[in-house]
Task: inverse folding
């Protein structure tokens, strides 16, 4: 992974969102507000996953082009199947 700083910043922001979510629950805030915050955390986390999957895909394809090793593509395909869905 080339530049991890943007991912670390995103993860720190998510960490703050989760702490805010915890505080909202402790304060017994409205369910709609809590669910909105949960949705924001989930969306932000999925974006991090998307960035990492994109980086991994590029890495595998480049390695395959350099080496011709089909195992790189097989690994990529397995990973995409496993992690490409929202629940993965």
Result:
């Amino acid at each position: 992974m080339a530049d991890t700083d943007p991912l670390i910043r995103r993860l720190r922001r998510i960490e703050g969102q989760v702490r805010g979510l915890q505080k909202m629950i402790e304060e017994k805030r409205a369910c709609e507000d809590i669910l909105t915050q949960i949705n924001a955390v989930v969306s932000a986390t999925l974006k991090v996953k998307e960035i990492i999957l994109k980086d991994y895909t590029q890495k595998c394809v480049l390695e395959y082009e350099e080496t011709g090793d089909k195992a790189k593509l097989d690994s990529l395909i397995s990973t995409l199947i496993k992690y490409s869905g929202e629940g993965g």
DSSP finds three helices and no strands in the chain. The two ends are 21 Å apart (CA to CA). The chain has a mean pLDDT of 91. The domain at 5-83 is CATH 1.20.58.1000 (Methane Monooxygenase Hydroxylase; Chain G, domain 1).
